[in-house]
Design goal:
This protein has 216 residues and is an alpha+beta fold. It has 2 domains: 54 residues, no CATH class; 140 residues, Alpha-Beta Complex (Phosphatidylethanolamine-binding Protein), CATH 3.90.280.10. Helix content is 25%, strand content 21%. It has 3 helices and 8 strands; from the N terminus they run ααβββββββαβ. A 6-stranded mixed beta sheet has the order 1-8-7-4-5-6. A two-stranded antiparallel ribbon has the order 2-3. A hairpin with a 7-residue loop joins β4 and β5. α1 runs antiparallel to α2. The radius of gyration is 19 Å and the shape is globular.
Length: 216
């Protein structure tokens, strides 16, 4: 996990806060049970749950971080991905494979486009929208997206791409790859928080998206 920026530290504090809120009742219960039932069993359960919470929040397959869903836009862009709309995402782009970041292409660019922004989200994640990838400052003339552009933090607390990795046994999650056209520079800096990236999309002149699915 990257903790070299204030955004990274914020993500870490968020994960610890989420873990402590969900585990505290179990720990309290374990304390009570220690006076009437086998203490080792109660505390082992509490510690195990704590470890599970940390793993889920840090891995890219746990709950969302409460960010708003990306907004709509008046015009439409066609986004091309290495999978068809609504199809299963190839294994090499997921945690079951190499976890490679897919290359995307978008067209046509509306007149007046100054910058493209990429946002990849999982709206089916427990707890809310989970952001897997953001990239910004992308030139309208770029070939493959993100094309070496600056990237922001994702919901796992890392900068860049986090591959799809939903909880085992869940129905396949949807992963929405959205490309936005902005009429003015976003002003976003490398390592930007997911919420800041989504806020910068207000007023976008066009949007395109392709949705893939993946389950384990």
């Amino acid at each position: 996990m990257q903790l070299t920026t204030s955004s990274g530290r914020s993500s870490f504090r968020f994960m610890i806060s989420r873990m402590s809120h969900s585990v505290a009742p179990v720990m309290a219960s374990a304390s009570f049970r220690s006076t009437v039932v086998a203490p080792r069993r109660a505390w082992s359960f509490a510690i195990g749950l704590a470890a599970c919470q940390i793993a889920l929040l840090a891995s890219g397959c746990g709950g969302g971080d409460g960010v708003s869903a990306p907004p709509a836009a008046p015009e439409r862009i066609t986004v091309h991905a290495p999978f068809r709309e609504g199809a299963t995402i190839p294994t090499r782009f997921t945690c079951s494979g190499a976890g490679d970041a897919p290359r995307l292409f978008a067209e046509p660019m509306p007149r007046g486009t100054r910058e493209l922004v990429l946002v990849v989200t999982d709206p089916d994640a427990p707890g809310g929208t989970y952001v897997h990838w953001t990239a910004f400052g992308i030139q309208p003339t770029v070939g493959a997206i993100p094309g070496g552009a600056a990237q922001g933090h994702n919901s796992a607390g890392h900068v860049g791409w986090t591959p799809p990795c939903p909880p085992k046994g869940d129905r396949p999650h949807r992963y929405v790859f959205s490309v936005y056209a902005l009429a003015k520079p976003s002003g976003l800096k490398s390592g930007a928080d997911p919420g800041d990236v989504i806020a910068a999309l207000d007023g976008a002149i066009a949007r395109g998206q392709v949705t893939g699915r993946f389950g384990r």
